[in-house]
Amino acid sequence: MLPRYLVIIKECVPNLKNHDYGFLAQVLARGINQYFSQIGAKLNLSGMEIVILNFFFDNYQTTVYQTDIEREFNIRSSTATANIRIMVQKELLQQTVDPNDKRRKQLSLTHKSMQLETQLNASKERLEQALLTGMPTSQQQTFLASLELAIKNLHSFNTH
Known about the structure:
This is MarR family transcriptional regulator. Helix content is 67%, strand content 11%. The protein is mainly alpha-helical and 160 residues long. It folds into 2 domains: 1-43; 46-118, Orthogonal Bundle (Arc Repressor Mutant, subunit A). The protein has a 3-stranded antiparallel β-sheet. The termini are far apart.
């Protein structure tokens, strides 16, 4: 049986009018979220925890604060606080007082979370391969450039 989001695509894409880009982006995002949720279930992690860990893996040489997570994922402070609290309890993140500003806490990966990096990176690579299957290199480059431009445009649109 096909996942619901694939059924929706199969039923709706041929009937889309006016290039419903928002709908297709939503379907793609749901599929990606579902994939990470499945990976997370095997590792006792939520999809959001995986995404946050990937953010840390990609920014390992940078000092990370809660506000960075809020900004990166466009989430409220309370949502970030709840996710960070759970990740600290699971020993995936640790909080330390910023030596330059005692009011702020730096966030960093623990040994336990660093052990997940290879496995999560492999999962991310499998997802990217699945997304790009059947696309020639030139189409992959166009797809990436289009996604980056759409994200930039949406950011500009949302800040005005």
